[in-house]
Amino acid sequence: MAGRDMHTSLMEEPLVKQLALAHEVFWTNPHKTNEAVKNSAEWEEEIAEAEERLLRFAPYIASAFPETKEADGFIESPLAAINDMQKLLEQDCGEALPGRWLLKCDHDLPISGSIKARGGIYEVLKHAEDIAVKAGMLKQDDDYSILHDERFTAFFSRYSIAVGSTGNLGLSIGMIGAKLGFRVTVHMSSDAKQWKKDLLRQKGVSVIEYKADYSQAVKEGRRQAEQDPYCYFIDDEHSRDLLLGYAAAGGRLKKQLEQMNIKPGADEPLFVYLPCGVGGGPGGVALALKLIYGENVHIFFGEPTHSPCMLLGLFSGLHDGISVQDIGLDNQTAADGLAVGRPSGLAGPLMEPLLSGCYTADDSTLFSLLYKLRASEHKSLEPSALAGMAGPVKLYQTKAGKRYMKEHGLNMKNAVHLVWSTGGSMVPSEEMEEYSRIGFSFAKKMGRQ
Ligand SMILES: *Cc1c(COP(=O)(O)O)cnc(C)c1O
To answer: Which residues pair with 416 in a beta bridge?
Structure first.
């Protein structure tokens, strides 16, 4: 922080007071502009390159991970209608929540069961391609299924990859890294679930556990990796490649929307709600969707009440210069994938002119939505992934949300509410049942109020 005075005046802001008390808030972003994305041509080119790279790797992915064969080696998830969930939430809050509700099912992504299967896997693939091409072993017009050959795994085993993670990024990078032959080390924060660490160790990945939170695990991982010239560090707080891997989702989503005959425009606004941790995942998706749909897409990030790092960074304008601990929050949440105290220095500034807003959800809200989505739609998400689900209700029910819709003169009857589900299919079933039981008890309690 710039100093005591700035800290004092920030703490006096009503919104920051609410955040510091860990209350749920809905904030619309006054810095959003309707101008085109800055450097859009450059970004478009880089995203197109990422799409092409994923296409080159598709034959390898299809043979290395048979579950992707049917999708021709594309790591992609369905887009599903969630009308029953919409009805259930309308009943619960006693008012209409109009529009068409969809769930982007990244909890079902192959290989690692979370949105990290986009960015994390992409960055490892790019690194593998870079070093294999440089060594003269691979050409871009080769059939990449040759990467399965022993000579490639032997080659990659001379290199290592390291990453700091709350769980899912490590899981994604470990799965693909180990498959290619790399030596992988994952630096896990204290939030990481035991089953994720066990699974990685089974795959031959080194897992180093920290008692501290995500920022510390990243910092230590970065420090150790710097000492080894053969080690490549995947930097979740700054990586452009990670962000581009996530951004490749945009064009694919556009095709899925077209198949449903949805064409976002002035009369058919598209609202997208994304769970946000450090911001790279939702930031990459948001960037791509803004490039495609411009002002016809309205993007909101959801965060836990104990870890609203992106909201705090955007509101204060300090981005990665402030952490939730600076306002007295503990960064403790059951939403382990979102337990991040300081936002990405890349994603924060990039989102500043693009994002419609951010909101927070209490763990009890996340659990209760987890239970309700299972009961109504039979979809099982991990707690973090429900941060998106809280969005549409908050848009309709908060003062700030109502003002946003009014100011933008939107025809909400035709609105499309797309909730991005970011993880869950690999959670062991006993653990999922336990989440659901907790969710049921919260849902019951809230119903009685
Ligand atoms: C990592 C993660 C996110 C958010 O991605 P960031 O890049 O950290 O913002 C959301 N949901 C789940 C389940 C995650 O694991």
So the answer is: 100, 270
